[in-house]
What does this fold into?
Amino acid sequence: MRDASISIITACPKTDDLAVVVVSSFPAVGAYTPIVRRGAGIVCMLGWFYPEVAIDGLDCLEQGLTANVALNKMLTNPRGSREYPVTVLDNYGNVSAYSHPDNQAHGSHLVGDRLVVQVHGFTQDKLTYRIKKTFESAEGDIAARLMEGLRKGVPSELAVELGLRSAALVVARDPIIPYLSLRIDEHEHPLEELARLSEELKPPLERRFLKSIGEKRMASK
It folds into this structure.
């Protein structure tokens, strides 16, 4: 089974929402990555990694450590490995990323302002740049921009060639109450299906989020 994945992590400058999208040739990628916690940050590991390494990284962020420090701790974790690509965003908006320096033929990343695009398991000239520019020029809320970044940034013929079959989209607006968390575990066109679900389910999920936030505030009085 081919192991190819693409991810974008970011923090919205307007709302401070933490947001990430990932698509993979491996089934049910959302069961393993990303890990997002509002008030802490994002850890998105790709490839065959140990999930506890990612959890330890997020715990570091929750303690107030920066993305660089958390990433270094993950890379030196006894169960970690410098073979696994990872992107990190902390609660301050800092980002950090790692792709194996001696294995660039099988992956790379591109860092922007509160943004990282990463590919793993393949290489294609200027793909990370294309995804980044597509995301940055997209309109709409952060979820819509993430989806456009991958749907228009990744050529359809490449998606077929890679055998992309699962995807996940997470937007965190509250430390406890979910805002948007969607997964496509197995689909011939996971990005298109994830975009469809995001557009269709966003209104009722947002209503439920706002209702839950109101109840949370009432309970705290």
Remarks:
- The first strand starts at residue 5 and ends at 11.
- The beta strands are 5-11, 18-24, 35-37, 41-45, 86-90, 95-98, 107-112, 115-120, 166-172, 180-184.
